[in-house]
Specification:
By secondary structure, this protein is α+β, with helices and mostly antiparallel strands. It folds into 5 domains: 155 residues, Ammonium transporter AmtB like domains (Ammonium transporter fold, Orthogonal Bundle); 26 residues, no CATH class; 155 residues, Orthogonal Bundle (Ammonium transporter fold), CATH 1.10.3430; 173 residues, Glucose Permease (Domain IIA) (Distorted Sandwich); 191 residues. The protein contains 19 helices and 24 strands. Strands 18-17-16-15-14-13-24-23-22-21-20-19 form a 12-stranded antiparallel sheet. Strands 7-4-5-6-9-2-1-12-10-11 form a 10-stranded antiparallel sheet, with no helix packed on it. The relative contact order is 0.06.
Length: 741
Amino acid sequence: MLSLLVSVLPSTPANTPLRLLALAVLRSYSLIFFSQHRGFAALLLLLSFANPGAGAAGLTAALLAAGGAWLLGFDREVLKTGAYSFNALLVGLALGTFYEPGWAYGLVLLVGALLALLLTVALGGWLGPRGLPPLSVPFLGVIWLLTPAAEQFHALALNERGIYWLNEMYAVGGEPLLQLIHWLNGWQLPLMPDTYLRALSSVFFQDSPLVGLLMALGLLWHSRIAFSLSVVAFLGAYAFGMATGVYQDGAINHYILGANYIMAAVAVGGVFVIPSAASYLWALLSVPVTAVLVAGLGSLLARLGLPAFSLPFCLTSQLFLYVLLLRVDSRWLPLTPIQRYSPERNLYAFTNDRERLQSQLYVHLSLPFLGEWQVTQGYDGAPTHQGEWAQALDFMLLDAEGRSYRGAGQNLADFYCYNKPVLAPADGTVVEVVSHIDDNPVGQVNTRQNWGNTVVLQHAPGLYSKVSHLRPHSSPVKPGDLVRRGELLGACGNSGRSPEPHLHFQVQATPYIGSRTLAYPLAYYLSGPAVRTFQVPAEGESVQNLPLNPLLRLAFELPPGYRLDVCDADNPAAPPQRWEVFTDAYNKTYLYCHRTGAVAYFERSLAAFSFTAFYGDESSWLYLFYRAAYRVLLSYLPGPELPDTFPLTLLRSPVLKWAQDFAAPFVRFVHPTFALRYHGADDPYHPRRLQLSSRAELRYFGRTRVLQTTDIELVHGALAGLRVQLPHQSSPLRLVCQPVA
């Protein structure tokens, strides 16, 4: 059965039921450590057979639960992670450890696996909407039901292999196997490492330093952060036990220092919370809480004849996560937004997305005018942007000498911004319009009707924008109208508290004129020659909207269903790689390579195209395109390079990667960077042909290593070709791209 499971994975088509079930069962093992690492899962599966009876029972229970989940029609993507079957695996390991094989044992195993599946689904459905994972609570529920029930199953016998197992091993392998077992059990390790390794092995109900060592190496292989948290938790538990006198008789029990501490620390310090220095302190704080639960619950449950097993870990983890969900300010100890089943991947994706993908956090607001205007009063500016109205911007048009008017400036028409169009900063609904207030003569103000003529738009629940001091009767909109970004809202005037024509702009959380302001960034704009993304213009800055390029917008549209054949220009006989755009169940868009199975997720906003994640074969040409077009602003901006940052998952040097993984929660010394520049346009205003050049680099310890340079050619609104130069290749790879009808 074991060899069949392992052999199925590489040889079966990706979406067959057999492969799906094999993957679900395999990942059941690694999911115990919050992992989807196949190699780690295979190692754990093998280690479970250090106790052959328990290993076979665990594998059987996992197969039963995965098959049941598939037959009952539960979510295939969740099934594939092992989430439906890992509790059944634990049930099987426990039953195989404590009971003798037989017909009654087989029936109890079948019922236990099915009950574990049902409890997993039910608890997941109840806890999931509350933001909490069920963890191994279903396993505990099954064991607590089966333990007293087993006393009435007279055909079910307790396992006595702990007494006679050496005789059984002698019958299997003779004297050589017996000598090997004696050698392995005869290791003379120092007390602390020996206890740590036995504590790890207790996850699989074993007491073996060898199994614990292999588990520790597998955990290190899977995640340096998870491994370091396990060591921190073990040392913290040992220190707490010494301080409270738990070991005053000199005996250090590996169960007391066991999996509860390690698993709770990994969960709250690196899996469900983004790893950081604060998360390590949070994990350390979980140690004394787990210690109290281990001692208290162990005593209470012993009176009922029930084992505590992983209950302290579950309660500590869920308590520590639930209180974080109730916070108002989540800057410290941010929870993992998308679970990638690796503390490193969670950390690198979170920090990288926070820096570059703010477009997912905000409604994209544009500047509400045409051309280049100057910020004459910014946030917290004097005299009027104070107190509850501090987060607002005033704009005016200035000439080359910095003046806002021509001639003597005695008339409103002398001011450059007067009567200029004021535009909707984003799609929205008109909720308030005031347009009857007269303009003030130059130098006078109307404090009685402070905001003057105003339009308020709603862009999302709890998000409104307001433009004020408009010219009277210039607004063509009325409450209830739907407007698109860039549509006319009115004309710049001098109404309200306005001594000279200017435009007031603010964002607010309520629809009322006079509402307090809300700090909110503008999505994309130019400040001089520099591109600003999701920032607030400062007082004195001259700003304008990013001029979008029609060729770039069309080339990077990539709607679902779009297909592209990519061929090697120097090897026409080589089969093409077809890329196709799909949308997943979460409405996320991605490019899929039919030949290699590689997937590159991307997002397309009004002004930018950005890749967000890559999964699969990194020898695929799609991976080269992912690195080549990592972020493209849809505006032709010849001149300086536009920088960005890759996630640290781009790092491939094992030594450098492991060193950075250990240090990542505290310091970053490796910086994968991206740079793009535009050139080669045949027409700067309406180009039919355009070339982009990008560079992916790795910077560390003052050194820079080029990973890839690429020239991207766009022709008639489509991707036409790539010229990719890799450092280990003498000549570039030339790819030709052809859209498929």
